[in-house]
Specification:
The complex is a heterodimer of chains A (about 120) and B (about 110). Chain A is built from no helices and 11 strands. Chain A has about 120 residues and is mainly beta. Chain B is mainly β. Chain B is about 0% helix and about 45% strand. Classes of the chains: A mainly beta (about 120), B mainly beta (about 110). Chains A and B meet through strand 4, strand 5 and strand 9 of A and strand 5, strand 6 and strand 9 of B.
């Protein structure tokens, strides 16, 4: 398995533009997580899905952020409109249900820069 | 409130010295506990989990329920251990919260 795949690896955009980050989880994993990593705040959980259904989106910073999971093999995180303070590395992770000791498998992340 | 605390942002030790990365958590119930590591230019990956009672790359972590701590230890640090380390309790519902992380720098 290629692991969790995220695209793009880097994204540079101007303030006000729409940004879409993509994630393909590991096949068979039924949990998908979106995290944001910054120097100031570390790793923050934004939202997670179980069987394509959003379970907890309490970490989504504001209405400009939205996430979808239309099927078991694809998820998107969208920011519209983007702002400079959204600059961060965004990680997608997946895991297999069945036990609470199931670890997270991370993608390589998308480094977003909003100018 | 659920909280995980890694008090040291940066820990610098000499090669061969012991290292301890601290983690304290505040949760109701009994979370499953993990340590993740992020080496330079690599993805975050699992280092070890409490339930496995394992030693990975010479690291161990002991759960102290009385102190609600899950410190990561290694008796002799190596240069290749330099990385960012995250303590991560997994609460009910499979929700994993990460600490702020500790950057370990092992000097030659």
């Amino acid at each position: 398995d290629a692991g969790v795949i995220q695209s793009p690896r880097h994204e540079v955009t101007e303030m006000g533009q729409e940004v879409t980050l993509r994630c393909k989880p590991i096949s068979g994993h039924d949990y998908l997580f979106w995290y944001r990593q910054t120097m100031m705040r570390g790793l923050e959980l934004l939202i997670y899905f179980n069987n394509n259904v959003p379970i907890d989106d309490s970490g989504m910073p504001e209405d400009r952020f939205s996430a979808k999971m239309p099927n078991a093999s694809f998820s998107t995180l969208k920011i519209q409109p983007s702002e400079p303070r959204d600059s961060a590395v965004y990680f997608c992770a997946s895991s297999l249900a069945g036990a609470r000791n199931s670890p997270l498998h991370f993608g390589n992340g998308t480094r977003l820069t909003v100018t | 409130a659920q909280r995980v605390t890694q008090p040291e942002k940066l820990l610098s030790v000499f090669k061969g010295a012991p290292v301890e990365l601290k983690c304290n958590y505040s949760y109701s119930g009994s979370p499953e506990l993990f340590w993740y590591v992020q080496y330079s230019r690599q993805r975050l990956q699992l280092l070890l989990r409490h339930i496995s009672r394992e030693s990975i790359k010479g690291f161990t972590a002991d759960l102290n329920k009385g102190e609600t701590s899950f410190h990561l230890k290694k008796p002799f640090a190596q240069e290749e251990d330099s990385a960012m380390y995250y303590c991560a309790p997994n609460t009910g519902g499979f929700k994993t919260i990460f600490g702020a992380g500790t950057r370990l720098f092992v000097k030659a």
